[in-house]
Amino acid sequence: MQLSFPTVIATLAAVFAVATPAAAQACAEADRFGVVTISPTTLSPGETFTVAANFSCAVQFGVNPEFTDYYIEVPVGNNGFEPPILLARRTLNPSSATPLLDSFTTQLPFALYFNASYVIVLDTTYPVNGTNGSPYSVVGSVDNPITIL
Question: Span of the secretion signal (predicted)?
Fold first, then answer.
């Protein structure tokens, strides 16, 4: 059997393609606690919407989520009368088919909303090691704006 130069090159390219891990996804520092998306983003009380979170970039920053809390909050100019509204408290399942994704559908609560800006906040709880190596939990947050009519 005689190997031609193009065959040798093609064979080497195939070997290197299998042996080389895929390049890491380029992630922005802002994505270190996850990326949260809402659909639709303009809502009235009682309307159904979907919240999705992606933690693919978070794990690249060493953030391995254990728990997630989703809130509706007034981020700026809160006069103390708009406490956060808990939408969901969830636990990620590392053995699921999509361990770095979370998604759920819910209704906008019939709460008292003010003429204010609102966001959906994702609080990501994850473990870190202390100075003696023992783990403790910390929380990082990201948000995405919504409009409540």
Answer: 1-24
